[in-house]
């Protein structure tokens, strides 16, 4: 029995892995470097490198005659970006993102409130899943489903007809700018789908923020004579606002960068994502596509700076 | 001192205060319906006999589109490519995410926050930025589109999923387990194999399945890195813009939902079980109490 | 084992000017210490005094900033835990949750590739030693705190280490179980005869179990010695205060009582309460004071006496004939305290 014991004294011939293990034990920094190198190399070089490539490309230009990218730094592409049509695209996308964000925040509130305040643990776990599932899965297919719903012969029109509301729908679709021949080809339809796909991103941070408001605050407010509406406006809303901002970062930036929804349900009015896709694709104008992408990045940078100031990142 | 009745009324008043109002319940239910009924519509339309439009209610129900879809080589090709891409992406994400999590967990080194930030960035930025960035790099370096250009694009935003899962598990598990193993004679590698890996197993499985689901139905980044290759989401996207095979598209849509939903549900189960759902924990606590009552007495 | 006799003269553990800094914090500050083979040695001190860090340095979980540690004469600098012939019982037991009790205990043997049948035999043998026979198939989650403790002990002992490190192993147990485990641990140590190094903040535990102990404070060793030695002859006011309750008399009060300004301690149980007018024999110290607080503790009573020369002394008295009522009546009474001069222990002050 003692023979097996002495096998563990130092200097006994150890296996290669054991020697390597000891070697690294004595050099914790080297061990750390070895752990970090592959992920940092991957994300640092490939990902950050690509982001740099994007910036570089946006300062290249496209030769109009040959259709080749001229690899010389110039501001010409940014000049092309600032045409009337392109500014319209940027404007339209930003307004859509803003409207979607506000609507999502309003819709997210009751669900978050119910989850944070009233749901029993079991119900809450179920609701979490019900919100997480659409966030994780098949965004494309979920958009596609609205094509079925909003189609002329689809369930929405069918319900509207059943309810005798065709005139109201026709009036909505007749509105200039947001209307169209049918909901499946209109900004109104796009709006419905955007709210639908990004809503979970809004619910989760608001729910997390609500969760952190102690019950005693609400009781204190009620105790001091505030009616529920006053408590909501004066106590809950200010405390939950950072959560709303955190959620809005998602809804805003995701709308800015999306091209699936406009392709599926939009009309001839283009959005930033579509422009990027079109320019890099058949047109082969990667510089202009890159410059177009810089726009949402800038908008988001401004937005994030403002959000940071509002303390939104504590709620993530 | 409060009387018994006082306490009873107080309790019932508190319970009343916890009861949601009807408008709140209705609004919650409405939003949940909004979030989920579109999936039901897809499932319904997979069985419709209507092959030209999206008529509701369906004129009739049939199973024939499953057969038609089964016989479509383009769908099989796209499905195969998507599965291969998702598998390769998951493998890369598992390795890189675990390494990054281990590094961030084991020491407080300078720039630790930066690593976290870098890992999270690809999923925080909209897909279109990742996509066009990779496209720009591919263009600059004249790299031909291939299976690997897709995988590399997907792996950038899948690493974080594994990273988060593994890091959360590491933070929950006690460092003294690793020390105990080394104290008992196990080298770092043996400790990883016998102690760390088993405790990470479900976190890795959950992270891996989420990464798989994320990669399998990714469309935005893929559009920029796939070139002429057609993954299943690209196939669906093409149908979205130029619908040609509506009934078959419905079948594929249903398939994509199933392939992504099931791993997510499983991953959710796995991460919850190990973190100790209240129910489980309470069972364990009761068991512990029973033992201490009967077996800690002097023997 | 022939090498046993030769190592008798070599300490099992030797600290030679060992320090461990964490940034600016001196967790262990220039500690020199010998722990002999077969000793039950306690590292006693308040939390944050460096005792656990010392244990981790011995185990190899941490490396000293400076100084050398020798295990049985061998410098262990840079030696990882798995190359050291010591085993640890962790404060939180650190039982592997995915393995059974048997799997946990056999882990070290499995790593060392001890053949299966021998493994089984040794696990059974050690389970017997810690009185956990028949529990090999349980999972740690199914055990009570006391049982986990035994498994953790068995898991370390099954490897026959030459030194066993115990990091506050009884801290999580309730009082009754703790007292029972103290006796068992001591018995096991005597039975197998290896060195136990025991970290604790509980002075009573250290006094009960140890052959010798080291008192830690602010990363330094204040005193090393046998329990009775440390208790009766505390070398600093910190030790006097930490090991048992003690009175430290300093400055003017000391001069008024003994005629010298040298600080000294005297244990509360050595002091006797007399009437203020009582006579004092030769070779006894005395001080007048007023009882400011009476704490009745059942078997004995603790009095706080404010001295007329300044300061206060704690006095304990067995309740041989007195009752709770009697002692409470003493509150506020002027008394004379007397004790034998030989019970005064000069101490260094200012270390706490």
Give the topology.
The complex is a heterotrimer of chains A (316), B (299) and C (352).
Chain A: H1 2-6, H2 16-26, H3 28-58, E1 61-62, E2 69-70, H4 76-81, H5 84-118, H6 121-136, H7 139-150, H8 155-162, H9 166-174, H10 187-211, H11 215-223, H12 228-257, H13 260-265, H14 272-280, H15 286-309
Antiparallel strand pairs in A: 1-2
Chain B: H1 4-17, H2 22-45, H3 64-70, H4 73-106, H5 112-124, H6 127-141, H7 147-172, H8 175-183, H9 188-216, H10 220-225, H11 232-241, H12 246-275, H13 278-295
Helix pairs in contact in B: 2-12, 3-12, 4-7, 4-9, 4-11, 5-7, 7-9, 8-9, 9-12, 11-12
Chain C: H1 3-7, E1 13-22, E2 25-35, E3 40-44, H2 51-59, E4 66-71, E5 74-75, E6 86-89, H3 101-111, H4 116-129, H5 145-157, E7 163-167, H6 175-192, E8 195-200, H7 203-209, E9 212-217, E10 220-225, H8 227-232, H9 237-242, E11 247-249, H10 251-258, E12 264-266, E13 272-275, E14 284-296, E15 300-307, E16 312-318, H11 324-329, E17 334-340, E18 345-346
Parallel strand pairs in C: 3-8, 3-9, 6-7, 7-8
Antiparallel strand pairs in C: 1-2, 1-4, 4-5, 9-10, 11-12, 12-18, 13-17, 14-15, 14-17, 15-16
Helix pairs in contact in C: 3-4, 3-5, 4-5
Give a description of the structure.
The complex is a heterotrimer of chains A (316), B (299) and C (352). Chain A has one domain (75-310): MetI-like fold (Orthogonal Bundle). In chain A, helix 3 (28-58) crosses helix 15 (286-309) and helix 12 packs antiparallel against helix 15. Chain A has helices spanning 2-6, 16-26, 28-58, 76-81, 84-118, 121-136, 139-150, 155-162, 166-174, 187-211, 215-223, 228-257, 260-265, 272-280, 286-309, and strands spanning 61-62, 69-70. Chain A has a two-stranded antiparallel ribbon with strand order 1-2. In chain A, strand 1 and strand 2 form a beta hairpin. Chain A is built from 15 helices and two strands. Helices cover 75% and strands 1% of the residues of chain A. Chain A is an all-alpha fold and 316 residues long. By secondary structure, chain B is mostly helical. Chain B has 13 helices and no strands. Chain C is α+β, with helices and mostly antiparallel strands. In chain C, strands 6-7-8-3-9-10 form a six-stranded mixed beta sheet, sandwiched between helices. In chain C, helix 3 (101-111) packs across helix 4 and helix 3 packs parallel to helix 5 (145-157). The longest helix of chain C has 18 residues, at 175-192. Chains in contact: A-B, A-C, B-C. Chains A and C meet through helix 1 and helix 2 of A and loops of C.
